[in-house]
Amino acid sequence: MAPGLPPQRALALGVPAASSPSPVAPLVRPAAAPAPGEAPPVMALADAPAGLRQQLAGLSLGGSVHGEQAAQRLVIINGQVFHEGDRVQPDLVVEQIRPRSVVLSVRGQRVALPL
To answer: What is the reported pTM?
Structure first.
């Protein structure tokens, strides 16, 4: 390398460098996670992990009422009436009642059950 010249300047002037630069490791990005405040995607029951499907298999959906406003919506699970935000079990929340399905949140996983 030329004395007194920074390595970048020496390379730009065509002066050989004393040692070759070390290779740069490729940038590895982690898998995209939902942004803070953004809910994970809703999966179909068939796509849910086996343990989750087993837990949900014990539920009996009796019907639902859907309205434009959340206060008008209800679903009957195991003979009891639930509204959006209600807990069916300690780790099972009625997240959303849709016209033809109900979205349940189970330990952070969201599953749509057909009605």
So the answer is: 0.65
